[in-house]
Design brief:
Layout lengths: L3 H9 L8 H10 L8 E8 L11 E5 L10 E4 L4 H9 L3 E3 L1 H8 L7 E4 L4 H4 L3 H4 L17 H10 L1 E5 L5 E8 L4 H17 L10 E8 L5 E2 L2 H7 L1
Parallel strand pairs: 3-4, 3-5
Antiparallel strand pairs: 1-7, 1-8, 2-6, 8-9
């Protein structure tokens, strides 16, 4: 059941209207506030079939102003230069056998997992645990790499991952409600451009069916797709 603040927010919105991105961000920020700094999320419903391997969209994008989230990083690496570099770059958890054992027991107390190629032979065995939570290291997202320091730094600086779900939707955090509106707009536009660039060549017709901006506890504000497509 929707709460009082959510119902109040609905009353403030014209659900039949679409907005330019800067206007949508302003509307979202003016909606009733929760008792915490809410995440601002961009959601896109795409004209793709995720069951087709060539239409399974996935990638990463560095947000110019970061996501506002304190990202906890784990790095699977055997003792050596790659492990030391990850520690120096700020990874909270670095190791190999002990970390794999801990995860095998069900531990997933982190936001991003990075692994060296040499570690992946064992990390792959954690697929049933990490996969459903979107935590499995993947070369396509830059989380399987020998340059562990760079990967950790990029994630900490605001690189976020996006992946289309079974319903052909992408949800990506583009900042916090406390961010200046201009920063949220720049972050959101950067994410939108990255997703448009990932359009599969096999997709016919329009690529994006709908696009919205919302806060954690708010209803969605719809964006004007024609303007968005031209900008992207």
């Amino acid at each position: 059941m929707a709460g009082k603040k959510y119902k109040k927010a609905l009353q403030q919105l014209d659900r039949s209207k679409t907005y330019l991105l800067p206007d949508a961000v302003n509307v979202v920020q003016q909606l009733p506030k929760a008792g915490f700094d809410e995440t601002v999320e961009l959601s896109m419903h795409l004209n793709v079939d995720p069951r087709q391997s060539d239409q399974m969209i996935r990638g990463t994008v560095p947000l110019p102003h970061g996501s506002g989230k304190n990202v906890v990083v784990v790095v699977f690496a055997k003792a050596g230069p790659e492990a030391e570099a990850a520690k120096e770059a700020g990874a909270e958890h670095v190791g190999f056998d002990e970390l794999i054992k801990k995860c095998t027991g069900g531990w997933t107390g982190f936001d991003v997992a990075i692994a060296t190629p040499a570690a992946m032979s064992e990390v792959r065995k954690l697929g049933k645990i990490l996969g459903p939570r979107g935590l499995m290291p993947n070369p396509k997202t830059g989380t399987v790499t020998t340059d562990t320091a760079k990967a950790v730094q990029e994630v900490k600086a605001g690189r976020v991952e996006f992946k289309v779900d079974k319903g052909a939707n992408i949800h990506i955090a583009v900042g916090k409600a406390s961010f200046a509106a201009e920063k949220l707009v720049e972050n959101a536009m950067t994410a939108i451009e990255a997703i448009y660039k990932s359009r599969p060549s096999s997709v016919k017709g329009g690529f994006v069916k709908s696009c919205t901006v919302s806060k954690t506890m708010s209803p969605s504000v719809y964006l004007d797709l024609k303007t968005l497509m031209n900008a992207a």
